[in-house]
Amino acid sequence: MEPWDDDIVSLLPNSLKVYASMGAGHDWMDIPLLTERGILYCNGGAACTLAIADAALYLVISVFRHFSLAQFGAKTSDPQTKSKTQNRLREISHNPENHTVRVVSLGRIGYLVAKKVYFGLGAHVVYHDVQRRSREDEQLIQAEYFDSLNDMLAVSDCVVVAAPYFGKHIMAADHFAKCKRGARFVIVSRGQLMDEAALVEALKSGQLFASSLDVYENEPNVHPELVKMDNVIIMPHCAGGSVESTTGFERLCMENVESFFSTGKAVTPVNPEVSN
């Protein structure tokens, strides 16, 4: 989506009081500018939490078991290729159980991902976030909190980025260099959080063994090197796309509008100070 900056926001009527979006992110919207104009912005991220967490679980399984390579081998319908693929997978596939999965940002989506990899896969969960979860939340999934992002990278077999975008890379060349050698990398939130060229180099050097991506640094474009790699799974930014997510977006959008006009407050405001 094209950024909503002053060129567009300035065209909005003065009568506009609330903007309810049917989408999860808001990095394309100039929130401070809307706030300055007294416009309350609401996003619909809560509607696609389950869909994104499900997709993240699939991507985590895939970087351990390399199912995209398996699918490619099977779809050739060539017995020799199928046999080679089977042999290759026996050499590189691992069960996620007892491996350490690091989740960057244990917010709404990240926490659900952590629960799925813990209860569903038997993986050990570690996390780093600006705000630590409650003791009860940590105990439920036996999650270990790290104050230092770099310290956590060094012990993680798989890194899952589920953080919202806040204006800079959180996985750049120096971060990939600090990862445990042979680790796996998954991202389902915002592609601008990673340095895609650095990711390519980390994969080519063997610093990272495999990667699964649903989002990209310069969408809709994907780094051409990633497309060529058989240890990389790419999806077209569809993790949150399901029938249930779409209807949930519509419902939450209307709930925000109705709540604003009936109570003066919205359900999922991004800039709640407008209505305070």
Explain what this protein looks like in three dimensions:
This protein is an alpha/beta fold. It has 2 domains: 71 residues, NAD(P)-binding Rossmann-like Domain (Rossmann fold), CATH 3.40.50.720; 186 residues, 3-Layer(aba) Sandwich (Rossmann fold). 43% of the residues lie in helices and 13% in strands. The protein has 12 helices and 9 strands. The strands form 2 sheets. A 7-stranded parallel beta sheet has the order 5-4-3-6-7-8-9.
Short description:
Residues 5-271 form the D-isomer specific 2-hydroxyacid dehydrogenase catalytic domain. This protein has 276 residues and is an alpha/beta fold.
User: What is the strand content?
Assistant: 5-15%
List the strand order in the largest sheet. Answer: 5-4-3-6-7-8-9
> Secondary-structure element sequence?
HEHEHHHEHEHEHEHEHEHEH
Number of helices: 12
Question: Using DSSP, what is the number of strands?
Answer: 9
Distance between the termini: 29 Å
The gross shape turns out to be globular
CATH class annotation of the largest domain: Alpha Beta
Output the structural class: alpha/beta
CATH superfamily of the largest domain: NAD(P)-binding Rossmann-like Domain
The name of the CATH topology of the largest domain is Rossmann fold
- The low-confidence parts are none
Kindly give the count of domains. 2
CATH architecture of the largest domain: 3-Layer(aba) Sandwich
